[in-house]
Amino acid sequence: MATRQRSASQSRPSSPTRPKTSMRTRPPPFVPSSHTRVPSASRAPPAPAARAETPVDRPTSPTKITASITAGVKPIKKNLAFRRPMAPHTPLGSRPTTPSSPTRHDSPAAMLLTPHQVTTVTSHDVDVSVDMDDGPMLDSEDKVLVSVRVRPNKAGDGKDLAWIVNEKDDKIQLRPENARSGGAGTAEYRFDNILTGSDNKPIYNATAKAHVRAAMEGFNSVIFAYGQTASGKTFTLTGDDDQPGIIPRAMKDVFSYIRKHPKREFLLRASYLEIYNETIHDLLSPVPTPVQLKGSTLVPLREEVFTSPQGVKEILERGEGNRRTASTDWNERSSRSHSIFRLVIESRELAEASTPNHNMPPATPGGSRLYRDGGKPVQMSVLNLIDLAGSEKATSDKERTREGRYINTSLLTLGHVIQILGENAAKGKSDHVPYRSSKLTHLLQPCLSGDARISVICTVNAAPSAITETQSTLGFASRIKKVQLNAEKKELIDTEALIERYKAEIRALKQQLEEREREAPAMRRRLSLREQKDESKAVTDISKRINQLKGLILTSNTVDDNLCGPRPVSPSKIDFDLTPHQLREELFQAKRKIELQDLQIMSLETALEQRPLISTDAPESEKDKLIAELQQQVTELSLAARSCRGIPVEVDPALDGTTEQEWTARLKEMETAVAEKDAYAAECAKALEGEKQLRVKLEEANKAMHAFVRDIDLYITGKAAESRIAKPRSSGMGALAALDTNKTGELRRSSSDQDLEKKADPVLKRIRGQPSLLEQMPEELEMLMNQDDDFDMVPTAKATLKGLKPSTADKENLIG
Ligand SMILES: Nc1ncnc2c1ncn2[C@@H]1O[C@H](COP(=O)(O)OP(=O)(O)OP(=O)(O)O)[C@@H](O)[C@H]1O
């Protein structure tokens, strides 16, 4: 089974302590907190006691620093598919292979929430040609809208179907020839809609459009798909690129509705859950965490504010990526969990800025600040879009069978609850309804008990092989039709709505800004250049925050259901009916605004110089990557710093061994490099030793040569002495010169030498009888000349010595 393992490094970090900040402190960047307690779908306005932690700090403390939700969280791969890719339209009854476990795709990027989520990319391309206001109205609002969608057969001709499908009259009936094989009768079923085909647009228009509109108008609404596995629930709810399902179409309509209601402002936030094996999981949480159902409150639950179709697309994409799916015997990508996409819609009439509501009662502690501020009540509703897991028979895979048991049990409980509710409504009873028997019914309790408008799309497989399952689904559809609803609009007159908190924060920040603005001229004289820069930065940050908060609140001017991102607000027009005094006042205000903008420009320039490593609208995955890298660096540097200071370093388990692994690898690399260098050094030493030996040999050869030369000199000197006539010849011109001359065959004796020789004739005669010194060349020199081919230098030395060795002719010349 694919379980979500929570490593130490993935554990949620504790929020850092909030630093105390003075009034001059730069306000924090807007980062809604990750987990927000939400009211249950039906109990939309939270009771003050169970007040939700909201995605922002309280308006009264705009300078508080909110912890980044992703601190310490490992980045997780982002799943790029918006919707899980649908398996190719499987022929009915075909059996794809079964993998070992369901996938909870690697949780995608842990995110830093930005106020706009994603606002700049092109809007989700959904073809919704029917305007929301032109869509169908709910005819019987106290009843569940029940539709049956028949999945087309492989050929698409409806020929081999076991059911007679009458779309025109919204009837479905088992063919008589199939009645026996299914063990069922041929009773006719009638519902609000019987739909066929693969086009998702008519399905959306018939089953969901009115409910989305109701949600925008302040009613809690639920749309869910129920049916046997592989009957087309996910295809209906999510769809694919060619056929967007109910969820993307609904989101498109939400923006379309805002666009068409210029007198209201809206705040949208989304969460995405799944119930897998009776445990609720938050599909938007970067760290897989089970969500607890406390009463009707889900904790912890991540809610994300979004401001554009692209923003919600990104949320859906992430949630879809985290859903557990697996291949079963019937469906290649079977949902193994019930998934619930929740959209909280807050809206209220735009207040006329210049007309405070003086008629309202004064604010009392714990009472409504709304009246004091001239605000209007806030409508709050929840739209739940639910894709239930499919009921199924035991499969060939153990794990799938176990999941199937959980799925079937919770669906049975849902059926049971629906039956009791139907009976209670029909017979005017109030029997106990076992909502808490399963997580699904517990979660849906507020809606099922009547406080929501409900639309159910029962998907069926009309093949003869699935008659029993189809009958069971149609039975469920019939039972839920009997449930009585009593949904009412929720209007909050208190200030707990998020939209009001944002508004209050905007007011507080604006006040701060005005104060600063008033003090600005005096301050400029008093402050140093650096302080002035800081001041201007603080001012810019406040205005930035104001703009961020304003950006979260949507109006018809700021949203576009088709284009990318919010539109700029159109400039206000000049009213020529104003008196000169009023115009002067406006002019004065405009001048002040310009001054303020100058200040902002200065601060923006400073900010530009110190701009962050990554742009704020970079994809979440990049931000997460950068955060992870920086965290890694911080950890490594702090470890290094500790070890430098001699503090024993304990390896942080949160590092998950990665640093240690990295350093071990580096150490190995260095050891290899050292070993290579050692080997090279040993080779060098060996070569040096060889060189030394060569030098010794050369020195020996040198000595031998000198001895030889000395002998020659001695011989010549001796000859001169013996002649007793001439002075001895200098050794410089002695043997070597003589030998050189001799070598060229041009040994010339001077006439005076010849004379001397004649005079020394008796001595010469004596010497001639003895062996020549030249013939007495030392043996080792001879050896050296003939051996030692090992070294480069030897041939040179050898050549020199060979050059020195006189030839027989030379010797004869010399002696003779
Ligand atoms: N109306 C339809 N037209 C064309 N293809 C369809 C239709 N309904 C379902 N399919 C195809 O049938 C397959 C199974 O559909 P899907 O996954 O939506 O079933 P499911 O009811 O959600 O199953 P599970 O409960 O196992 O998750 C998909 O490949 C889907 O594309």
Task: Tell me the layout of helices and strands.
Blueprint: E1 145-151, E2 163-166, E3 171-174, H1 176-179, E4 188-190, E5 193-195, H2 200-207, H3 209-216, E6 221-227, H4 233-237, H5 246-259, E7 264-276, E8 279-282, E9 290-294, E10 297-299, E11 304-306, H6 309-322, E12 325-326, E13 334-335, E14 338-349, H7 369-372, E15 378-387, H8 398-427, H9 439-448, E16 453-461, H10 467-481, E17 491-492, H11 498-526, H12 529-552, H13 580-609, H14 620-644, H15 658-723, H16 735-743, H17 751-759, H18 761-768, H19 779-786, H20 793-804, H21 808-815
Parallel strand pairs: 1-5, 1-16, 6-15, 6-16
Antiparallel strand pairs: 2-3, 3-4, 7-8, 7-11, 7-14, 8-9, 9-10, 12-13, 14-15, 15-17
The protein binds adenosine-5'-triphosphate.
Adenosine-5'-triphosphate (ATP) binds at residues 86-87, 89-90, 151-152, 198, 227, 229-235, 331, 333-335, 389-390, 459.
Biased composition (Basic and acidic residues): 743-761
Keywords: ATP-binding, Coiled coil, Microtubule, Motor protein, Nucleotide-binding
Coiled coil: 485-526
